[in-house]
Design goal:
- By secondary structure, this protein is α+β, with helices and mostly antiparallel strands.
- The protein folds into two domains: about 130 residues, Jelly Rolls, CATH 2.60.120; about 90 residues, Winged helix-like DNA-binding domain superfamily/Winged helix DNA-binding domain (Arc Repressor Mutant, subunit A, Orthogonal Bundle), CATH 1.10.10.
- The strands form two sheets. Strands 1, 2, 3, 4, 5 and 6 form a six-stranded antiparallel β-sheet that branches.
- A hairpin with a 2-residue loop joins strand 3 and strand 4.
- The longest helix has 27 residues.
- The chain is globular and about 55 Å long.
Length: about 240
């Protein structure tokens, strides 16, 4: 069975043998809601391609992204800590696909397979460090720096250099106003780092985006590599 998801590929042979027959490949549609905050989902998702955002409602009708999960991880990380009630909304940000596993089997493996349990806890640690990096960026970075970081993180987790993202959606994810996001996109486009048009963004120069992020990108990714011994970052300089 061919699987792209890194966590599944990191599994020990016994754990993988148990879950593979139960994995169900499903399509992830952009803007699809996986779970609402406070709900209990029956499935755990191992993303193959695309992106799931964890978003928090900080006031009625106002959302901000607290983290993102792609092929490097699983959703919902709270399951690993035996918290089955979703703390955040899970929304598909970039379309793709995922293998889903029944929550009951995931919990059984956590309880009976120490190696599986340890691997999932490593992922939770890496996700915690991603959230910390996001908090730091939101607190100190300019909007164009945060946007550059966000685009790099998306690029790491999808197969293409081009993805569908609207200005309104970016404003929501970055907790900013739409006009500010439009200005930031034009700034990055003017430097040749991206091209943007009518809901499409294309990454053209990763190194330029990394420089623009001004230290906001790379620390959480380096911690993932430290924990798992594998770097999931994209290495291409341009499209």
């Amino acid at each position: 069975m061919t699987v792209v998801n890194l966590l599944v590929n990191f599994l020990d042979e016994a754990s993988r043998h148990l879950i593979e027959p139960e994995l169900d490949l499903v399509k992830l549609e952009q803007r699809q809601n996986i779970v609402m905050a406070g709900e209990i989902d029956d499935w755990v998702y191992f993303v193959e391609d695309g992106l799931i955002s964890l978003v928090s409602e900080y006031e009625p009708g106002r959302l901000i992204e607290v983290g993102m999960i792609g092929r490097e991880g699983m959703f919902d990380p709270g399951f690993v800590l035996r918290d089955e009630e979703a703390a955040y909304e899970g929304n598909v940000q970039v379309e793709g696909s995922a293998y889903r596993l029944p929550r009951s089997l995931f919990r059984q493996l956590m309880d009976t397979h120490p190696a599986f349990n340890a691997l999932m806890l490593k992922f939770v640690r890496s996700f915690e460090l991603q959230i910390a990096s996001t908090v730091s960026a939101n607190g100190r970075a300019k909007l164009e720096e945060r946007l550059a970081r966000w685009l790099l993180m998306v690029h790491d987790r999808v197969d293409s250099n081009m993805f569908h993202i609207t200005h309104d959606f970016l404003a929501q994810m970055l907790c900013s106003r739409r006009p500010g996001v439009t200005v930031a996109l034009h700034l990055l486009e003017g430097k040749g780092y991206i091209s943007a048009s009518r809901g499409l963004v294309e990454i053209r120069d990763r190194e330029g985006l990394i420089e623009e992020a001004n230290g906001g990108y790379g620390k959480a990714e380096a911690h993932y590599e430290r924990l798992f011994g594998q770097d999931f970052r994209r290495r291409t300089k341009q499209a």
